[in-house]
Amino acid sequence: MNSTRAARRSGRRLSDFEWLHTLPFVAAHLAVFGIFWSGWTWSAAICCLILYAVRMFGVTAGYHRYFSHRSFKTSRVFQFVLAVLAQSSGQKGVLWWAAHHRQHHRHSDQEEDVHSPRLDGFWYSHLGWLWDQTSDTDLKQVRDLARYPELRWLNRYYLVPPVVLGVLVVWLLGWSGLFIGFFLSTVFLWHSTFAINSLAHIWGRRRYPTKDDSKNSLLLSLLTFGEGWHNNHHYFPASVRQGFYWWEIDITYYVLRGLEAIGCVWDLCEPPAAILRRGHN
Questions:
Q1: What's the whole-number mean pLDDT along residues 170-197?
Q2: Which residues of the chain form beta strands (DSSP E)?
Q3: Which is nearest to 230 in space by CA: 250, 256, 252, 201?
Q4: CA 26 to chain centre
């Protein structure tokens, strides 16, 4: 995540990857097969759907729209709630996530981009970049967030929220709850999120002439609660609303509007009228 990235890209070797750090990722995928030992239950299946939905909102509203782009405001208490909810998805700390995402937007599909399908191909942008010497958090990218000690603590001990959630699930629903409710939903959540880094720069339609390859996709938007309107987002990243028009389904935005109505969030940044008119041309 620095000026040596282009040089490292040209000379990248398999031995350069942080392979030890892939073990939790691989273990989570293998844990799904525990279903053949535990069997399945309706409660575990319902848990899987609920945990996918709730944590997807944590990723989209928390990691992305709030911590990365500050597209709305909230209290310090609810900020912490969003951070815990986001990190329960097992996608590292909020400072780490926001720092890398801000780097991506500054250099989208250019040499300094951390995950560009144009430069590195589908699989690298989907998940390979996670272990290509990217484990550190560049606090210079997130000075506005790093001033909160509770966020720094969460960022350091990023496994606490998902581990606590996993323990609660197995305590309440048994082993089938763990394998199906927790691990299966986590794996689906990971790959749906990663698809925005990879597929959303390869597949879909372009409304706005951005400098990158970002595209809009209804399917990805449904899977990720609105993140699939990626070309819209790259054209005006500050917007809390990524489905710019009424027919572009953006579930995260709808939930945030509900939270605004009860006072949990405020000052939601909307796309300006000029940008909406430009999208019709």
A1: 97
A2: 73-74, 265-266
A3: 201
A4: 19
| pTM across the whole model | 0.94
Cβ atoms 192, 224 nearer than 8 A: yes
Q: Which two tokens stand for residue 21?
A: 């750090």
Token digits for 46? 């319902």
Q: Rounded CA gap, 15 and 30, in Å?
A: 24
Report pLDDT for 240.
Answer: 98
Could you tell me how many helices (H) and strands (E) the chain has, helices first? Answer: 16, 2
Structure tokens at 226: 């609105």
pLDDT (average), residues 244-269: 97
Amino acid 76 reads: R
Contacts of 150 (CB under 8 A, 6+ apart): 80, 83
- Specify whether the CB–CB gap between 227 and 220 falls below 8 A: yes
Does position 13 have pLDDT exceeding 80, yes or no? Answer: no
**What is the pLDDT, as a whole number, of residue 19?**
84
Start-to-end CA distance of the chain, whole Å, equals 37
pLDDT at residue 2 in the model? 46
Separation in Å, CA 25 to CA 19, 45, 122, 248, 275: 11, 21, 18, 33, 40
Average pLDDT over residues 260-273: 96
| Longest CA span, the chain | 57
pLDDT value at 3 more than 60: no
How far is 276 from 281, CA to CA, in rounded Å?
9
Does residue 251 contact residue 224 with C-beta atoms inside 8 Å? no
Q: What is the C-alpha separation between 263 and 247, in angstroms, rounded?
A: 26
Torsion-angle region of 75 (φ positive above 0: left; ψ -120 to 50: alpha; else: beta)? beta
Whether 20 has a pLDDT exceeding 70, the answer reads yes
Q: Report whether 35 contacts 179 (CB < 8 A).
A: yes
